[in-house]
Amino acid sequence: MTHRICPNCDGYASAAITLGGRDQNGHLRTITAHCPACHGTGTTRTRSTREGARA
Ligand SMILES: [Zn+2]
Questions:
Q1: Ligand 1 centroid distance, CA of 50 (Å)
Q2: How confident is the model over 1-55, as pLDDT tens digits?
Q3: What is the pLDDT of residue 52?
Q4: Coil, strand, or helix at residue 33?
Q5: How far apart are CA 2 and CA 48, in angstroms?
Q6: Ligand 1: distance of its center to the CA of 43 in Å?
Q7: Quick one: which H or E segment has residue 42?
Q8: Which domain of life does this protein belong to (predicted)?
Q9: Looking at residue 46, what is its pLDDT?
Q10: Can you give the residue ranges of every domain in the chain?
Q11: Distance from the CA of 34 to the center of ligand 1, in angstroms?
């Protein structure tokens, strides 16, 4: 089974988003947004729901 690129973030699981300001040290203030779909992995593993279902 191969890992597929997460369609939600297109593989960019964690993207630094500039908040448009600088902190006291002059550093750009950025936050890291983790993709909720792949949990920051950038890939998704598709599972067959029926295949794993054991009632
Ligand atoms: Zn993702």
A1: 24
A2: 677 898 888 887 776 667 788 889 898 887 777 788 888 788 887 665 555 555 5
A3: 55
A4: strand
A5: 13
A6: 6
A7: none
A8: Bacteria
A9: 67
A10: 4-44
A11: 7
- Bridge partners of 15, per DSSP, are 33
Name residues whose C-beta falls within 8 Å of residue 32's C-beta, 6 or more positions apart in sequence: 14, 15, 16, 17
Centroid of ligand 1 to alpha carbon of 26 (angstroms): 30
Between the CA of 14 and the centroid of ligand 1 the distance, in Å, is 8
Pick from 13, 10, 12, 17: nearest CA to 39: 13
User: Contact 48/36 with Cβ under 8 angstroms?
Assistant: no
Amino acid at 25: N
Distance CA 40, CA 18 (A): 18
Amino acid at the residue 44: T
